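Example record

One chain of 370 residues, shown exactly as stored in the release files.
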Amino acid sequence: MLRRGLLTALRSGQGWPGVRTLITTSNDPAIGIVGAGGVGEAIGLNLHKAGKRVVAWTDHNAEAGAELIKVAPNRVNTPREVAEHSDIVITALTIPPVVRECVLGDDGVFAGLREGGLWIDHSTTDYNQTIELAEIAASQGKHALEAPITGGLTLLQEGKMTVLVGGDKKLFDEHEELLGHNFSTVLYMGEMGCATVTKVITNMFAGAHVVLASEALLMAKKAGIDMGNYFDAVRNSAGNSYVWETEVPLILNQTFDPGFHIRLHNKDWNLGYEMGRKFGVPLVAFGVFEQTYYKAMYKYGGTVGSTHPAKLLQDEMDVTLDAPGFENWTYTCQLVENEMEGRTPTMAVVHQDDPSKAANSKLNARAVDK
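Predicted structure tokens for this chain:
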């Protein structure tokens, strides 16, 4: 009965009965970060640039946070210590078991976060666990927002990614401005869990596009079409997609590295299948793409870039899907206003030639990811 009543309160936006007013609505909250890999560190640096106080952070990897420590020197040992210093704790973690471990227990975030404090989770994680942890937070007089992110590490470093937020609408409204320091597009998706479902589905879409794009490139190569011209042709056709614009160049320059491990993409495939079973949705086509990703991971290892299904195809076919002119390729995005009322701006890809920026977006640029 307690669980049912709590979930109803959370989903209706009423919050937890008896919880005192949120203490983090000031313009200068103390912010802590748990997880200082590529995502957590970029978030911390962006918050610092915006004049926000990152008062404490932690990561289990001693090499993590090499840049963050220059502006936020208070590195502590546990998530609990981070929370004890903070009004708001942001987690940016890899897999659901790590999220659970860092949030619960004697050394977890909830053990140190004060009543009325806020936990924001940027991890792409398990739907059921997201609901459960939000309920536990509310039962302790604490608040939670799920906030998975999408768009790629290159955009996050520029503060231009998209964040998908789920949870209490009033809580979201109070902290939308804070989220805007890291994300150019901030979308409220609905009750707790809605953002997680949306994020996992977008990653499944992205994976499907990588596999389809690889086969399309192979067809063009076999037909003798100039690969650079082919890239531009698809960009200006009905077949274009965000993945075509931002991952095909990584095939053409043979890095296959968008700054994201293939093992983490496969984690997202697994999360998607769990959601499919929960909601009774058959995922026949996605199953084919998932197996291609696993085959690539088994061949090249879990820490290679997540565009490696393309390398798998070219290696199996003994064809190189390369093209000159993409060696220093990178990108940014610009928001284009729509003329339809109620629709958010469209994220348009702008292609760039920048050796330093391109190198900084790769996994091997960060010791923590090697």
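Notes: The CA atoms of residues 230 and 323 lie 10 Å apart.
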